[in-house]
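quick one, 126 residues, struct below
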Amino acid sequence: QVYLAESGGGSVQAGASLRLSCTASGSTATISPMGWFRQAPGEKRMFVAAINWNSDIYYADSVKGRFTISRDNAKKTVYLQLNSLKAEDTAVYFCAVARTWATGRALAAEGRYDYWGQGTQVTVSS
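---
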C-alpha cells in the first residue's frame, strides 16, 4: 500500500502562483511515474502533468509553459509549480503514483495509476 499526502493548495488571485507537494509513504520501493490530475466542479478528472524517476516529463497542453512538475526521489516527493494561474485552473488537484513504467503520452492515462491522494483545493479568482 502507498499513501500520498498532498499540500500547498489555496485561494489566490488570477496571475498568482502556488506550489503543490505530494509525498509518498508506505511500500514505495517500486513506484515509478508520479503525476497530478485535477477535477473541476461538475467535470471529470483530467490529467495535468507526470514525471518518471528518470525525469521523463509529460504535460497536458492546457498547462504547458505555466506549470512545472519536478520530483525528489530521495524524499519520494513530487512537486507541481503553478504559475500565471487562471480562473479555469480552479479544481481539486490529485496526486497519483503508478507501479508500472510508462513514458510520454502514456503517462496521461488515469487508469495507469494505482494510488491516489485525497486532493488539495486550488481556487483562482479573477
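The chain has a mean pLDDT of 95.
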